[in-house]
Design brief:
This protein is mainly α. Among the domains are: 386-484, Ankyrin repeat-containing domain (Serine Threonine Protein Phosphatase 5, Tetratricopeptide repeat), CATH 1.25.40; 511-628, Ankyrin repeat-containing domain (Serine Threonine Protein Phosphatase 5, Tetratricopeptide repeat). The chain has 38 helices and 4 strands. Strands 1-2 form a two-stranded antiparallel ribbon. The protein has a two-stranded antiparallel ribbon with strand order 3-4. β1 (12-13) and β2 (16-17) form a beta hairpin. The chain is flat. The protein starts with a helix and ends in a 6-residue tail after the last helix.
Amino acid sequence: MLPLMNIADSQVENGKMTGLSQMLSKELAGQGFGMDENQGWFDSGEKTISEICQHGLLEDIKSIHEEDENKLQEPDEICWTALHYASRYNQRDIIEYLVKSCNADVNVVTDDDVTPLHLAVGHNCHDAVRCLLDNGADASMKNNNGECAIHLVGKRGDKELITMLLSNHQTDLQALDKNRRTPLHHACFHGNTITCETLLNQRADLEAQTIEGLTPLHVAIIGGQEEIVKLLIKRAKERNMKIQNFVNISDRNGTKPLHLCARGGLLNIMEILLRHGADVNAQRILSGRGYSALHLAAAGGDLKMCRMLLNYEAELDIRDYDGCTPLHRAAARNHDTVVTFLLSKGAALIIVDKNGLTCFLHAVQEGYTHLAELILKRDESQIYQRTKKSRCCVHLAVINRHKPLLMMLLRNAGSKYTNAIDYNNRTPLHYAAALGDSEVIRILLQHGSNPDTLDIHSQTPLHLACKADNLKCVKMILDKSMISLNIVDDTGNTALYNACRNGNTLVANYLLKHGADVSFADMNGDTALHCAVRSGSLSVCASLLDYYASCDTVNGDRETSLHEAAKGDNADIVVLLLDKKANTELKNKRDKTFLDLAIDSAHDEVLDAIMNHHRLDDTIITIFPGYHH
């Protein structure tokens, strides 16, 4: 068979069969072979309708119809019929046969509302499109995206196809898809110049807006289509439109074409717009946070664009809705070349945004060491700037954990700012302690930070380090502190109290060994032992008792640590307190003993521990006088 096939193939000239090849083709077809659109032979015995249509096997289509006249109109697993496949693969003869001989619906749709015409247009199948239109295909039908055939031509950019569609009376030049995009929107975005010109010759609307308020000019810029932008402006002039208005139209978010250029780095298109009157200082008024084109160019680090905008007299220190200038935006993105350029043009370093941040403080907050140093070399006084919350550069470096930057700042400022206080009266050391950052604490202490400074709540860095549960930090601070160990904050808490509340055994033990007072009570009368019981830490409770913490101290509710343990389902702690001779007779404000609370709470393990304890008789006698075990 192989030699026969080779002979047949050799007899095909320019897509036409010679006499010999016609004879051989009949023999091959009789043996189950077909010829595809590239005149290549294949076995057609097990082909699907899709494959039969793809290879243009009209005789096979006829055979299927003769066997089952409904088969060709039944959708397959992806809801395509034979007509969809024939249209997709540009098989005019099969389309004619299906429509005229099989009565196939020329407008049959898939589950995505895709018609055969959609497929033919979408794949530039000229013969199929012409055949479908000649047989009554509805050019106005929309798929599930709301797109007509002419929308798809806009994407493809085929002059012959668009001419065919525009000659059809059902084609709507201004048809809108689900996003209210016209065919011109699609053509502009994809840069199809011929399609755009054809649509514009038919008076397509130059100012049509999508759901987002985007005009064809907007979408051409989004697509980066410089030639289309030129074409649109040219046609707007021909229609005697006011060009300055045309190039300054806003979408629904207040975004103008110039903003899109700045955001996308489209320098050439930007110059075209500026030459035609684009407002260089226009600001995005809604979702754009008041950015001007210069804000966007600076934030994007585009030096050439910044230079062009300033050449067109962009306002150098224009502020957005956050109070930021282009210089702020460049600094916040670490664009040092843009920062240097803007400063060379006279941008003001002293301007603060709504949070009190200067350009320098933006760089510090983001951790840009090189940029911050560059600014300081230009103006040393920037190191003295404070935020709206009175935080200095060292505060910001510590809070944001920028250690290399912190070292640079300390080299430039010395120890001057290591003890600076903010609106909460906190020093950088307070924040390092709260973060549990031992390396930063070491650096600050080496540069003279005072570990005994009280914040607005009378808390020392040691209080905060104990809350952070970091023993290394606690050791470092306590090693330098003279008075912090037993300082009481404005709620009556000591450093030990904070450690016990978190159940941190290592920190609590370290504080106890260094003389922490176990007797302090907070504003509610709770001692460190009360806190340790609530935390459920048996080891912390044991440590406190080893340092002679009282089991029987009552708080504001007249409850002892034993009361707390009974309520909290802490059987082991209950046993520990009973072993330490905790008073079982004391009653709280509601006249209840610890056993009453245990019974009320119904914690079986606690009740079992009490009943099995060697002090059982004492406990029961307390509740039932006269009882003897």
